[in-house]
Amino acid sequence: MVTPNDIVVKKKTSSGLDFYKKRKLARYIGNSYVYIILGIIYLPIILIIIYSFSSGPGFSNFSFSMSNITELFTASTSDSRRMITALEHTLFVGIISSLLATLLGTVGAIGIFGMRKKSRNILLNASNVPIFNADIIIALSLMLFFTALSIPKNAQTVILAHTAVTMPYVMLSVLPRLKQMNMSVYEAALDLGATPLFAIAKIIVPEVLPGMISGFVLAFTLSIDDFVIAEYTRSNSYETLSTYIYTQAAGKEGLSGALKPLSALIFLTVLAILIAYNIRKNLKTKNLQLKK
Amino acid sequence: MSNIIIELKNVSKTFTGGNNVVDNISLKIKKGEFVTLLGPSGCGKTTTLRMIAGFELPTSGDIFLNGKSIINTPPHLRPVNTVFQKYALFPNYNVFDNIAFGLKIKSKRTLTEKKAELKKTSGELRESVKSQIAEFKTGSKQEIIKKVKLALKMVGLSDYEKRDVNSLSGGQQQRVAIARALVNEPEVLLLDEPLGALDLKLRKEMQLELKEMHKKLGITFIYVTHDQEEALTMSDTIVVMKDGVIQQVGTPTDTYNEPINAFVANFIGESNIFDGVMLEDKSVRFDNTVFECTDIGFKKNEKVDVVIRPEDIYLMDVANSNAHVRGKIISSIFKGVHYEMSVLSENKCEYLVQDTTRWDVGEEVGIFVKPFDIHIMKKPYTSNIFEGVIEEDGKVNFGGGIFDADTSGFAAGENVWVKVSLNAVDVIDDKDRGTTGGEVTTILFKGTHYHIDIKCGNFIYHVNTDVQWDDYDQVGIVIKPESIKLFKGAEK
User: Fold this and answer.
1) Is the separation of the CB atoms in B295 and B378 below 8 Å?
2) Which listed residue, of A16, A20, A63, B18, carries a Cα 20 to 30 Å from B405's Cα?
3) Do A250 and A260 fall within a single domain?
4) Boundaries of CATH 2.40.50.140 in chain B?
5) What order of strands is seen across the sheet that includes strand B350-355?
6) How far is A104 from chain B (nearest CA, A)?
């Protein structure tokens, strides 16, 4: 019979010691791998934040100056005025298109969910195509589509394009909530005299609201991120932040110095929202645990 | 006739895929009655209820409420309310708002009606309508609070108004669901297995409470359940369903004492069901023994089903000359009030007996049954009859498969009647190896063998077998060519 002592003796061999050394090394390499990746992701952003406090547009020869930051908030040159307008356009397009996408996507998700299995699958797959399709193809076909219908290219075309592209994402985030729902709740509302529309507004929407919110956030970030689709569906005078940066970088004048503090600001805003969201979530789960 | 509140006329429901869930049922429900739709799962009882509520549209037939067709009325305009199986409470509302939901909608509707009236009227009358509206606004709010409190009191949940519905136990949630439906004072209350999710003790309590509420309110209750004991306890009328067809409608006592066929007898309460032959009026033979009974009007030598309830069989000393048959106790279980024993007779037929006297396993006993306690039922079928078509020489297509058969005298493409006796169908446990295959739906133990129904698509095979299959078993069907009898005369 093997006693516990036998096992201990076996572990004390020299090869066993090597094993622990090797493991320590492996862990060391593993950790540094994570740090390298984090560094690659965050170093450029940190660089931007640091160079926001340097004069000029470039990243060479750090010389402390608040000129770029004051430029961002005063917008004294025409160049930075253009940049601020582009930012406004980006936010406008982002908010309107993601609101539209959330509305249409939610209605679409509820409609698809209520269908029979066969037609549901067909529609679901059809609406997922834009997710897998290359942006450039969508952008090009939308551009041709708008030209064919002679819709003047401006803010509205960018908004329409972004709504079409981001709507499937909203549907994908609303559908799981619907699947979780006990659908007889909807029938119960009808049974108690609610019209179908009232039942959807009062019973289904509150249940899928978290899905709608995350769908909205997703649509908004996608819209802000987008360059390709906006570039093909905008008019020459209607610039979003991404198209502005692209034309500026390619042009003679180069980038505005105020872009660095602006980028830093956008990053910090997102970071703040993310932290606030996580804190709220933690508090909520804590409250739930307390309740139970 | 005016006391009929709900009438179903030749109602059928076929879902896409051709599954006939409800098959041409007609039913009249009296005002103030407690009606239970009883049957095994998949018998169409819930679909019937959902058609009355308006969630499903019948494929054909008509449904009347107080003599008027409600087929085209959407669910939110039907004066019926439903208690759902899984409570279906609104999770984002508290108890009060859940119960007040229907009342608030109703008061809103009257308010818009009154406002429309205000638009039409002019002059001096306007003021009176205006004050009416103001009065209604304050009045209805008070009334809603009063009604909700009353409803909560009725289900024994006073002071629970502010509670979150998710924090309630299953029994409490179901009470809220009942209150939510009853507070609207519906003409008919539909209950879809409302107690299914509760534990046995709570279920029994709620059964009595529901019965009490029904008595107090005088509302018509239509109750769906698969629990025969629940149906017997609560109902004025039981509607037994199977495969979308109503088997029997009657009071609990009638359905228990006078079941119309073997399925009902087996489903409601426990029973011994035997294959018998009616020798003449008041004389039946089963288990190789002639018994005296009270039934008359059968044909001579007609095959019948014989039902004897286990509590109606008397065991006596094996030497007693009054005994009809003799047998041996093969199992004996103490059930609290009585012993439940199986007796195997000399002719290898098994009897289920409930008796307060204990007999030990292995003991020889005499079995005695009073003529009044032997219930004779017509057999709904004595063989399997299908419509078929001759595919080619030696092959006939019927019942969901192409079988080998003796087709001499028939031409290819000819329509025929196919007759297969109950004993000739062989059941195998591999669905794919059979000529056709399906699912075991009904199982009856007939003393010496099992009688099962196998559903193959839209065809049902009735089979006598010695093997004990289970519900939902997927089985294959094989029939020997010489057992397939073909008859001319089928039309296309």
Assistant:
1) no
2) B18
3) no
4) 270-378, 383-487
5) B313-317, B364-369, B325-334, B339-345, B350-355
6) 23
Number of domains in chain A: 2
Nearest to A191 among B75, B86, B106 (CB): B75
Nearest CA in chain B to A205: B92
CATH tag for B383-487 (out of 3.30.300.180, 3.10.180.10, 2.40.50.140, 3.40.50.2000): 2.40.50.140
Assess contact for B209 and B182: CB atoms under 8 A: no
Long-range contacts of B440-445 (CB under 8 A, 24+ apart): B440/B469, B440/B470, B440/B471, B440/B472, B440/B473, B440/B475, B441/B42, B441/B243, B441/B471, B442/B40, B442/B242, B442/B263, B443/B469, B443/B470, B443/B471, B444/B262, B444/B263, B444/B266, B444/B273, B445/B273, B445/B350
Instruction: For residue B82, list chain A residues with Cβ-Cβ distance below 8 A.
Output: 187-188, 191
CB contact under 8 Å between A185 and B16, yes or no, is: no
Contact B375, B307 (CB under 8 A): yes
Q: Which residues of chain A are within 8 Å of residue B167 when distances are taken between CB atoms?
A: 291
Asked if A64 and A153 sit in the same domain, the reply is: no
| Average pLDDT value for chain A | 86
Q: Do A192 and B81 touch (CB under 8 A)?
A: yes
The residues of A whose Cβ lies within 8 A of any Cβ of B are 116, 182, 184-185, 187-196, 198-199, 203, 206-207, 291
Taking an 8 Å cut-off on Cβ atoms, the answer to whether A193 and B89 are in contact is no
Contacts for B254 with CB less than 8 Å, ≥ 6 apart: none
Regarding whether A42 and A165 lie in a shared domain, the answer is: no
Question: What CA–CA distance (Å, rounded) separates A231 from A228?
Answer: 5
CB contact under 8 A, B101 and A189: yes
Of A184, A196, A203, the CB nearest to B84: A184
Ramachandran angles phi, psi of B173, nearest 5°: -60, -40
ipTM score of complex: 0.78
User: Is the pTM for the entire model greater than 0.80?
Assistant: no
- Burial group, residue B289, by CB count within 10 angstroms (0-12, 13-18, 19+): middle
Name the E strands within B16-115: 19-30, 34-38, 60-65, 68-69, 80-83
What's the CA gap between B302 and A250, in Å, rounded? 100
Q: Which domain holds residue A85?
A: 80-254
B205's CB contacts (< 8 A; 6+ apart) are none
The dihedrals phi and psi of A235, each to the nearest 5 degrees, come to: -90, 165
Of B54, B55, B184, the CB nearest to A192: B184
- The answer to whether A108 and A126 are in contact (CB under 8 A) is no
Q: Which two tokens stand for residue B154?
A: 């009725």
| Residue A139 belongs to domain with CATH number | 1.10.3720.10
B270-378: CATH architecture: Beta Barrel (2.40)
- Tell me the C-alpha to C-alpha distance, in Å, between residue B6 and each of B232, B289, B463: 22, 47, 38
Is A286 a domain residue? no
Is B106 in the A-facing interface, judged by CB distances under 8 Å? yes
